[in-house]
Automatic annotation (TrEMBL):
<keyword id="KW-0375">Hydrogen ion transport</keyword>
<dbReference type="GO" id="GO:0045259">
    <property type="term" value="C:proton-transporting ATP synthase complex"/>
</dbReference>
<keyword id="KW-0813">Transport</keyword>
<feature type="domain" description="V-ATPase proteolipid subunit C-like">
    <location>
        <begin position="8"/>
        <end position="70"/>
    </location>
</feature>
<dbReference type="Pfam" id="PF00137">
    <property type="entry name" value="ATP-synt_C"/>
</dbReference>
<keyword id="KW-0496">Mitochondrion</keyword>
<dbReference type="GO" id="GO:0033177">
    <property type="term" value="C:proton-transporting two-sector ATPase complex, proton-transporting domain"/>
</dbReference>
<dbReference type="GO" id="GO:0008289">
    <property type="term" value="F:lipid binding"/>
</dbReference>
<keyword id="KW-0138">CF(0)</keyword>
<dbReference type="GO" id="GO:0015078">
    <property type="term" value="F:proton transmembrane transporter activity"/>
</dbReference>
<comment type="subunit">
    <text>F-type ATPases have 2 components, CF(1) - the catalytic core - and CF(0) - the membrane proton channel. CF(1) has five subunits: alpha(3), beta(3), gamma(1), delta(1), epsilon(1). CF(0) has three main subunits: a, b and c.</text>
</comment>
<dbReference type="InterPro" id="IPR000454">
    <property type="entry name" value="ATP_synth_F0_csu"/>
</dbReference>
<dbReference type="InterPro" id="IPR038662">
    <property type="entry name" value="ATP_synth_F0_csu_sf"/>
</dbReference>
<keyword id="KW-0547">Nucleotide-binding</keyword>
<keyword id="KW-0472">Membrane</keyword>
<keyword id="KW-0446">Lipid-binding</keyword>
<keyword id="KW-0067">ATP-binding</keyword>
Amino acid sequence: MLEGAKSIGAGAATIALAEADVGIRNVLSSLIHSMARNPSLAKQSFGYAILGFALTEVIALFAPMMAFLLSFVFRSHKNYHCD
C-alpha cells in the first residue's frame, strides 16, 4: 500500500517538469512581446526574463529531486525482530 502511494507521489512530482516547460515558454514569449512593443526597455526586460527563467528552472530541478526522495529515501520502516 505504501509503495503504491510513493509511486503515485513520485509521478505527481514529475508532472511539475511539464509545467516548468510551459512556464519557460511563457517567460520567453512575454520577453519577445515586450521587446516588440517597447524596444527601449529591452535591456531591463531581458533582466526580468532571466530572473523569471531562473525561478522557473528551479521548479524544474526541484520536482525530480522530490520524486527521487519519495522513491528512494523515504522507505517504510519494517520492524524486524529476531526470535
